[in-house]
UniProtKB/TrEMBL annotation:
It is found in: Membrane. The keyword Transmembrane helix applies. It comes from Peucedramus taeniatus (Olive warbler). This is MOT14 protein. Residues 37-502 form the Major facilitator superfamily (MFS) profile domain. Keywords: Membrane, Transmembrane, Transmembrane helix. The chain crosses the membrane at residues 33-55, 75-95, 102-120, 126-148, 160-180, 192-210, 321-341, 361-379, 386-405, 411-434, 446-466, 478-496.
Amino acid sequence: MYASREDIGYDFGDDSKVGSKPIKPNPNIDGGWAWMIVLSSFLVHILIMGSQMALGILNMEWLEEFNQSRGLTAWVSSLSMGITLIVGPFIGLFISMCGCRTTAIIGGILNALGWTLSAYASNVHYLFLTFGLTAGIGSGMVYLPAVVMVGQYFQKRRALAQGLSTTGTGFGAFLMTALLKYLCTEFGWRNAMFIQGAISLNLCVCGALMRPLSPKELREKYVVRHASEENQAKALSHSTETIKSNGVLGEEPEKKEEAANEEVLGSVQHIEIGGKSGSGRSMYGLRLFKTVSQLTVTVRKGFALWYSSYFGAASLFTNRVFVAFIIWALFAYSSFVIPFIHLPEIVKQYNLFRQDNVFPLTSIIAIVHIFGKVILGIISDLPCISTWNVFLMANFTLVTCILTLPLMQTYIGLAVVCALIGFSSGYFSLMPVVTEDLVGTKHLANAYGIIICANGISALFGPPFAGWIYDITQKYDFSFYIAGLLYMVGIIFLLIQPCIQKKQSREKSTEEAQV
């Protein structure tokens, strides 16, 4: 439509060759263990995102237990959902230093601890700390690795893989709502949270399944993508080429860092060899010193990668399309959440209780949302289709539905618009794919951490803003219109930047040709 795959670094052609040298495809890329990664990510979405979408059950229990205002009590679930996404950039640092598997396992323990401690809450403010903060950070430490690992293991079927894994959110919303409702009825909300904490320990199992690819396997994937992009994406501007180097961000500083690290480990090995004739106690000390040195090198290398991604001379923020993507993310998520807030008011205003009780409008959004993720993923993986264009079309459809929904006054009209909202919002599964195409696989964790952080800010402040607009105007219509217009601003940023970048690359090519 507006941007071709060349404009944002999409892959073309046969990925099984680099120049004239054939590369044997890795059985774990797009197959084999990759599908276990999809299963792991699917379960993570059920346990984390599904649980968060079912917090309305616990919110009612907290209102009755603590007798606080609805606004104050609602901040518990808002904090949990918001912090899960907002901590994304900091989780990227953990992934750079420890890897996805270790980060996810620690996050699973932290999430389970948050649920368990919340069972002993004496007031709402206690829940802010245990559930909002502790469980929220734990959720973020599992959610980001689950998305990143799917991106690492898939090349040709990335959109489908992300679509299948993220459908866990929709399934989780149904399963966890029914489970929490049953547990609260049978055992009370405190025991329900304790049991949910035990269930959340399965996140550690999901983290254990996130087997990292070997450096050789990663290099093969980078080489394949790099060769493909050199042949097909030479029109990229200088800023994008700096970022989209398939994991080579700040290459010279990294080489210097690696040289320093090798020097440190070399000196440790020299000391160890020289001390082999020493006592057993000194050998134990040398092994301990070697372990600490290796850990220090790993931490230094991970921190260097994280720092260069955000603050280095070739940081992610020098990519203008990626910056436009961040601006879009600040407005996008709240536009999806607002219909869930105001649909009950619309049903009440037009006296549609009978039809809505048979088939709730929010359920229509949730069910179609599952199919939307999978279908959009399949379409985006077709060789003749640009994922970027599918992403933009889905966004246009969603913003149009947000702006037209207040105009619907019948159940049939509302059901059709809600179905379109559910289907078009399936673009959420394409966000990691678009992010990876912009910055490369190596920087996916840091880049996607920024994107979900922007989504978290939108999720945290969007619903209160919509409620504030309703309190002032006493009409839900303005919430949809304002959210839709802000969303449109974000989409315009996505449209303008690739066009400007394409124009600049053409001008640069013309100047080089003249020289």
